[in-house]
Amino acid sequence: MSELPDVSKMSISKGMAAVYAPKKQPGNMGAEARFQTNLTRLEVTKNLIYYKYDVEMALFFRMPSGSEEINEERPKIFTKGPKNDPDTQRRKGQATDVMQALTVQQAAFFGLPNNMLLYDRQAVMFSLSELNIPAQGGVTFTLPPSLLTAKKEAAEIRVKIARVTEDFQVSSNDVAKAVNIRPDQADKGILEVYNLLISQKPFNDPNWVTYGQCNHFMLKAPNGFGPDDLKPLEECMEMKVGVSKSVKVLEGEGKQPTVYAVTELKKTAIHRGNQNLVDKVLSMFDKQGGQADLRPNSYDAKTVEKKIKDLTVALIYGKDAQKEPKTFTIGRVNGPAANSKETAFAGAGGEKYSSIADYFARKYNIKLRYPQYFTVSPKSPMRGGNRPWFPMELLMVCDMQRVKKEQESVQNQAVMIRCSAALPEKRFNQTAAMKREIGLVPGNKMLLNAGIKPDDKFTMVKGRVLPQPSIAYAGQGNRPTTMQAQAGRWRIDRNKFVKAKVLPKWKWHILYGGQPRQSDNLVDDYYNRLMREMSDRGVKATEADVAYHGRANFNTVKAIFEEAKAQGIKFLFFVSESSVKLHDQIKLMELEYQILTQEIDYFKMKNTVMKNQRDTLTNVVMKINAKCGGLNHEMTLHGLKTQTKSPIESPNCLILGFEMSATASETPCLGFAANYGADLQYFKGDYRFCDTKNPEALATCIRDICKTVVAEATAARKIAINQLIVYLNGPSEGSFKDLITVVTPRIEETIAPSKQITIIVASKSHNERIFQQQISGENATKQNIPSGTVIDTHIVSPVITEFYMNSHLAFQGTAKSVKYSVIHDQIGYDLNTIECLTHLLSFMHNIVNLATALPAPLLVADRCAKRGRNNNIAKYGSGSDGPVDFERLNSSLTYNNKPLRQIRFNA
């Protein structure tokens, strides 16, 4: 019998099937401990078969001629359609109503009440008994159209049910097949059944609304949630509580693949429905008495543009407005005023209208209240192929739509963050309450009849707490000093930085929102304190001039940079009042002029002086030194030494981080960072604009970046780089296959012929939570799991090397551990080495005396990606509907081939 190839020694060629790196033995460093989770073990009944069927529902209409003949060419299929929240909820509600009516009408056909049907409210249904449906063609049923519509031209509803062409039978014995070292061969059919099964209660309870298949929210909060948990939101929005759930096959106790349900407490903001759009927009100005200038291109109009774009609205006029109103999603905002003469047009019959307002007055006898306000237009063409402009007051906000990130006000974001930051004890109890609300309890008869029995309590797991590293400083009088981290933090005391830098020529600029000043005693005091702090830390700086600017705006900042360029100033230090919103413009000009910048808030400066906050001063100096290329401290392994030499000590090993996550509306930007200089603990980076959703484009971009940093590291260290450890943040498990087969071969090209590469994917978007076994204490630092917590057994994948790590100590809310997956590994480090490296890197952010949730290469890469996206918006605005010109963006908006790229400009 031939042996399987050792995939750890294989390079990946394009076109090969993906294979995960061999699973490593668990680590054993650190002190053992037990932890609680938010996972529930599901006991599975063996030898059950679930039969899978396709479902198609369509509403058919009579021919326009008025005859009884049915128009077979243009049915309205409501198991498919637009993906916006209101339309999706309406379609799923209709599908549920039709299926319920059909099962009543055809109870014998479906084997009811003895059989059980699991319907996903779209196009899939499972049955615990095989239905009398032929292998080919399926069965079609008809129902009266009155279930869905009152339109006279509606003829009938047809429901077609057919066997799926593949995987018709799903067995409860197939649990182990849901995971496979070859992701293409994983059979997740049983997980689809179980996910659908535990969604049945929220699917069928009118107090629940479901987004997707796994995110369930309650319209009325259950017991245990008070006013502090769900605070009011402004701008006609409401907060709802719910749960995000998923079913997974994990390693289990004793390495027996086991089914678990993960339930994560969630909160979301939704737009208040059935409200006039113009009233919603005016509510955004309640703090200024509801007064707003909403004429086209006014400041207020531009302010609300992001907040209503992508909102789904319904027409409140016309013959169908009361029962079945037409809806559309807003795509264009800030259109011409309804009373503007530029909106004059001719009607279908040739009649001429002098404006949109004139049209509604004559056609519908509607006199607009706000004809001077801007109009909005659909995202996609309506029937007839047009995208007309509509007055806001003739539109109603549709119900059940979530608030997108771009639509949230700063105040609402702050409220959501506070309400979501529950301490561990409270979060754990509320998560347990939501577990009961969705019916994930042992006595749930529906689940028992369908073949699963949930445990009553959450799963307990074994883990470890890794030791804390040591931190080296230059000390005083050139005497090196080593500090010991405690619980993810340490004190710098009076020590000097390891590598303190000399500031280039610099100047201070104070930006006020109101009148300018000739001097400011607070600024003078802060300036003197900062200069002393820099001297104490070994950072050298010449005296800087201070300039004061009133009513600061874009032109003010532009003039400051022009002056700096003419005078040879290389560092600009800004102190800005809170009303001055010029941060993004300052950072864009930093790029364009290649002059370093730092901006602090005036109020924070005032607090630093008035409250004598020296630690805050130290943090500012740490950022200044890092931006100038300095290293504030060095980490030493201390108790994190393993039998294998750590990669952070190996000059031939390069450690990189790539940040790939972004919202759908943002221009995709790939941030990266690496220790590609002579100092192995100094991470710096940049960003590239590329289509991160396209595996080929992503692979090419990452290859080019790796090629560049490998060459620079080789030159700086004067040694060949033959190992790459690559951390990726953002990819989902569904993209692992492309990372292995498309991206990895491109990375291999950069260090051929050695091809020693290890790829580790980090994620904070998972739903797993880890809690102390006994939660006690009155604050977050005492209730949360300790810095160094690592779990690499029981609740991890049976086939992928995974571990959960919590390097930082949370100061508010409940810590969310990072999940790491080693998907490709040619270097062969054991898990102790990888875990200790990851933990150590989380202490290398270099601008705070704290461990961070993500390791330094990923955190710096994240900041770079954000800088790139913000620079793009500051330069070109947001919301472009056209294709992205990546070549133009990369040539004009990145730090590539520019002086500041050689230092950590975004510290």
From TrEMBL:
Domain of life: Eukaryota
Domain Piwi: 723-873
GO molecular function annotation: RNA binding
Gene3D superfamilies given in the database record: 3.40.50.2300, paz domain, Ribonuclease H-like superfamily/Ribonuclease H
Ranges that cross the membrane: none
Pfam families hit by this protein: PAZ (PF02170), Piwi (PF02171)
Leader peptide range in chain numbering: none
Protein's name in the database: Piwi domain-containing protein
Organism, as annotated: Diploscapter pachys
